[in-house]
Write the structure tokens for this entry.
Amino acid sequence: MTRLYSEPARALQDRFDTRRLADRIEERLLSDRIGDGDRALIERLDMFFLATVDAAGQPQCSYKGGEPGFVRVLDERTLAFPLYDGNGMFLSAGNVLGGAGAGAGADGEAGAGGGRVGLLFIDFLAERPTRIRVNGVASIDPGDPLAAEWPGAQLVVRVRVGEVFPNCPRYIHRLALVERSRFVPQAECAAPVPDWKRRDWARDVLPAGDAALDADPL
């Protein structure tokens, strides 16, 4: 097993005669650093996809959106992003906390549980669509000083980067931006209340202080 490929992946590479190609991709394209081009892509995007896993191996995949540049590259081995108010389930954050606290060592490597994350960044709007994967170990510090730099951030996730590599862009669909979500928190105004929080099934279990409690029910 190589750094990137598991034994089952190797078996499929052999079945389809792609082992040599896979080795060349790992040799030429895989990095443990965020390069200048990677940074430019990450920091101009307004969304990405986040994959996490809990201590039992149960995966979760979620969409994260914000203003362009809401994911920040702190250095060539570290990036950070905010977690905004969501549906209160905290599945991704729970997976990060469940693994990073119990299994991560001083070298940033996670244990058998969660803490490990995969981030997929796709630029659908570029003249030549681009995507990169970032794998690493995530952590959450409830007192992270960076939280104050993102209006509306409940928590900040920091990712210690392990692997960075591009994906073939051929299947990326060309999309056009209609408008960005009006729910993304802004420093100068309060975010609107989502309709689902105003419905009967949710209103009586909302957390204390939620703005939806002061809104008219639907």
Residues 91-103 form the longest helix (13 residues). Residues 101-113 have pLDDT under 50 and may be disordered. Helices lie at 7-15, 19-29, 36-44, 91-103, 200-203. The beta strands are 47-53, 59-65, 72-75, 78-84, 116-123, 130-140, 153-166.
